[in-house]
Amino acid sequence: MKLIDQLQNKVDRKIYKRGKKYYKQGRVINYNYSFGGPKQVNIKAQVIGSKHYGISLSLELSNNQLVFIGQCSCPYDWGPICKHKVAVAYKFLNEDYSQLDSTSLQKANFNKLVTLSKELSQKEVDLKYFVKGLLADSMVNFKLKLESKDLSLAQLEEVIKERYF
User: Fold this and answer.
1) How much is the pLDDT for 57?
2) Cα 26–30–36 angle (5° rounding)?
3) Packing angle of the helix pair 83-91, 3-10 (nearest 10 deg)
4) 116 vs 113: CA distance, rounded Å
5) CA-CA-CA-CA torsion for 92, 96, 97, 100, nearest 10 degrees?
6) What is the pTM assigned to this prediction?
7) Any idea where the domains of the chain sit in the sequence?
8) 117 with 132: CB under 8 angstroms?
9) Reported confidence tier of residue 43, pLDDT bands at 50, 70, 90
10) What SS3 class is residue 88?
């Protein structure tokens, strides 16, 4: 069974349709994902409903079954999965999941950090990064070190967590 079908089977039909509609209307914003393990994706996003709702999801594939855990700041309390969560999960499964393989999974976070470095450099924040270790195609066994004269360690960590993790 396709993962998108599994998502549909996990929620009420009306909630699924509304979430899918929100996705198609482009209401999912500030969308980022990172990897919590080889078969786990953590997603953070906002969905524009009657207000902006913050969503945090963890999608995991276990024995080809979709395990769905998440939080939403909306007041929905008639079940574990609201239309906002459906919209975010649908976006990931529809746009990003099929494009991923083991190599791209491992490179995604590194590419996000390179993007962050470029963004901060444009704002005249001195940010340097160093990669140590084996830079093989698999991106395993490496250490990324970030330094900035303009940002404290706490500020740097906050910027990275806020935007990318």
Assistant:
1) 95
2) 115
3) 180
4) 5
5) -150
6) 0.62
7) 3-99, 102-164
8) no
9) very high
10) helix
